[in-house]
Design a protein that fits this description.
With about 425 residues, the protein is of the alpha/beta class. Helix content is about 25%, strand content about 30%. It is built from nine helices and 25 strands. The chain has a five-stranded parallel beta sheet, covered by helices on one side. Strand 5 and strand 6 form a beta hairpin. The protein is globular, with a radius of gyration of 23 Å. The chain starts with a strand and ends with a helix.
């Protein structure tokens, strides 16, 4: 079988690895618009710095372009993982080398290199989502003077409730980051190299401007061939097959079912792309395992704080006119039997349906590791568990190592005590 894979990021790499594991004789051509640093087995032919420019679906062919030369590749199966690019507002459009959009692996590598560049002192980050917050955290830890500009009323407003995002903002400010909220960037200053930005309130100087204002799927070349949403996201069925026979799609360029609202939308996370790549490879010959949707689980770090979310926040539920209520609980948890190791302070919010008490979402904020906690909550949410289920969930207890009751048990049980 001849398989073409377009895109070498998380979804594309996972698809290639899974396809090779299933069929050692498969022939794979990888088409990647940028450089490829991963070393693949000999049956994978890599076309680096090569763009896919036209899908000839009825002919089972893909037109590609490299260094001005065009070529047609035939396929039995095709997996599209074209990803997404940073959305650049018109007022920030420039060819200046010191304006850095944030999305691709190459751009992230550029960002990491800039953090250690001794010639860069003042950095402006436009956008207060998790990419912008992560960039601000990185640069501030390397001693740069950082300003974050967010048009909304809070950082991470699309991800966390205000009382969960404010400690993160404060942690950044303690590292020396200046935060501007409710402020709109109106343009850039300086030419040919940008020297700063203008906003609806002030003018700020910068050696580097990082743009983290959202993403746009790389699907312009597919719009007339495949069924897509108006925003460019590719529609797929439950087995990740597109409207074209033998053509699958994965990653940031596809619409996925967001289970808490049963809506098709973009959930651009590496974890989703990796799972989709594996499933697409599994379903190439015969539909085996459906992709049932996601709850939008993610976890990040800023300063000394870790924060995570799965499903709906109170703010998101309110915006969507979804009936909800919530319970919030804090706990100081032991991290080790060694008393010399300090406890970690954990704040947990469960958002749930007030009638059925079905879990709708959860947020976690802590000054220690939260991986296990946010993953447990994601599993409970995807399993449509209720607070009654969570109240009696059977979590382990190790004397001297962890505490009883488990924080999830305690938070869920609190709702019933409050109603007595």
């Amino acid at each position: 079988m001849k398989l073409l894979v377009v895109g070498s990021s998380h979804g594309g790499r996972a698809a290639i690895t899974a396809a090779l594991a299933q069929d050692a004789t498969i022939e794979i051509d990888l088409i990647e618009a940028g450089p490829v640093t991963t070393v693949y087995p000999t049956q994978v032919k890599v076309h680096a710095n090569t763009r896919a420019i036209q899908l000839l679906a009825t002919q089972h062919q893909l037109l590609i372009s490299h260094a001005g030369q065009k070529q047609r590749l035939s396929y039995d199966k095709l997996i599209l993982a074209p990803g997404a690019q940073a959305t650049i507002p018109a007022v920030l459009s420039t060819t200046s080398q010191n304006v850095l959009p944030m999305r691709t692996r190459a751009q992230i590598n550029h960002l990491k290199a800039a953090a250690t560049d001794a010639t860069i002192h003042h950095v402006i980050v436009i956008g207060g989502g998790y990419i912008g917050v992560g960039a601000a955290d990185l640069f501030s830890q390397h001693g740069k003077q950082v300003t974050v500009i967010e048009h909304g009323p809070q950082l991470l407003g699309s991800y966390l409730d205000n009382d969960f995002s404010m400690p993160i903002q404060q942690a950044l400010q303690q590292q020396g980051v200046t935060v501007h909220v409710n402020e709109l960037v109106t343009g850039l200053t300086g030419a040919p190299d940008v020297t700063g930005v203008t906003t609806n309130q002030t003018t700020l100087s910068a050696d580097l401007v990082v743009v983290a204002t959202g993403t746009t799927p790389n699907t312009d070349w597919l719009q007339d061939i495949l069924d897509c949403l108006p925003n460019g996201l590719i529609k797929t069925d439950a087995y990740l097959q597109t409207s074209a026979t033998d053509v699958f799609a994965v990653g940031d360029a596809i619409a996925v079912t967001y289970l808490p609202q049963h809506q098709s939308r973009s959930i651009a996370l590496a974890s989703n792309a990796q799972r989709q790549g594996e499933l697409a490879a599994l379903n190439l010959q015969t539909p085996v395992l459906p992709y049932t949707g996601v709850v939008g689980t993610s976890q990040w770090q800023a300063g000394h704080l870790q924060f995570g979310v799965t499903g709906l926040t109170d703010t998101a539920a309110q915006r969507a006119n979804i009936s909800h209520t919530s319970v919030t609980l804090t706990q100081d948890q032991r991290q080790s039997p060694n008393p010399a190791i300090p406890t970690k302070h954990v704040q947990l919010r469960l958002t749930y349906d007030p009638q059925s008490k079905q879990l709708l979402g959860a947020q976690v904020l802590a000054d220690g590791n939260i991986d296990e906690l946010i993953n447990l909550l994601a599993l409970a949410l995807q399993a449509q568990q209720t607070l009654a289920d969570l109240s009696v969930a059977d979590f382990y207890m190790s004397p001297g190592k962890n505490d009883l009751p488990h924080l999830i048990n305690a938070a869920a049980m609190t709702t019933y005590r409050q109603e007595k």
